[in-house]
């Protein structure tokens, strides 16, 4: 006996033994159909690379993942900018300490300047259309 029903409207599987709970909580579940347990196991698991569960002909199917929205791209760029700034802050801090303590090597002094320039350029990056500066080497 199958243990689930499928709703194409909600792109969701519902355990039959809990239907009474869902039906009292959800506005409409009139499209529920019986679904084979093997189908539920396939489409309730991990999707293949680049795919998400979608609905094709009212049945579950793996469909191509939609491209990220501009908002998602901007948010990702903001996170990357923050992570890169944290790295730059860390690289600058110890070199600045060495310089302040008058124990910095010539290489540390040059690299400190490079990291400071990098951090300034990084802070000028517009997350909506990022052009990333090269990391100091």
Description:
The chain has two domains: 4-64, no CATH class; 70-123. 9% of the residues are buried. The model has no long low-confidence stretch (mean pLDDT 95). The strands form two sheets. The chain has a three-stranded antiparallel beta sheet. The chain is built from four helices and five strands. It has helices spanning 19-25, 37-43, 70-100, 106-123; strands at residues 4-7, 12-15, 33-35, 51-56, 59-64. A hairpin with a 2-residue loop joins β4 and β5 (59-64). It has 137 residues and is α+β, with helices and mostly antiparallel strands. It is rod-shaped and about 75 Å long. α3 packs antiparallel against α4 (106-123).
Give helix % range. Answer: 40-55%
What's the tally of helices?
4
Count of DSSP strands: 5
Q: What is the structural class? A: alpha+beta
Strand % is 15-25%
Number of domains: 2
Which ranges are low-confidence, i.e. pLDDT below 50, for 5 or more consecutive residues?
Answer: none
Q: How large is the radius of gyration?
A: 26 Å
- Name the strands of the widest sheet in spatial order: 2-1-3
For the sheet with most strands, the description reads: 3 strands, antiparallel
- The pLDDT mean sits at 95
Q: Which shape, going by the Cα principal axes? A: rod-shaped
- How far apart the termini lie comes to 63 Å
What order do the helices and strands follow?
A: EEHEHEEHH
Summarize this structure briefly.
The chain has 137 residues and is of the alpha+beta class. The chain has four helices and five strands, in the order ββαβαββαα.
């Amino acid at each position: 006996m199958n243990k689930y029903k499928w709703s194409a409207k909600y792109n969701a599987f519902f355990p039959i033994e809990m239907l009474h709970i869902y039906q009292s909580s959800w506005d409409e579940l009139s499209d529920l159909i019986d679904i084979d347990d093997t189908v539920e196991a396939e489409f309730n698991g991990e999707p293949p690379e680049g795919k998400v569960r979608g609905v094709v002909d009212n049945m579950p199917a793996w469909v191509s993942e939609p491209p990220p929205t501009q908002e998602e791209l901007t948010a990702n760029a903001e996170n990357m900018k923050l992570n890169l700034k944290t790295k730059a802050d860390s690289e600058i801090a110890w070199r600045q300490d060495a310089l302040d303590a008058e124990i910095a090597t010539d290489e540390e002094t040059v690299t400190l300047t490079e990291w400071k320039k990098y951090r300034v350029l990084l802070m000028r990056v517009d997350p909506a259309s990022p052009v990333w500066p090269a990391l100091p080497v």
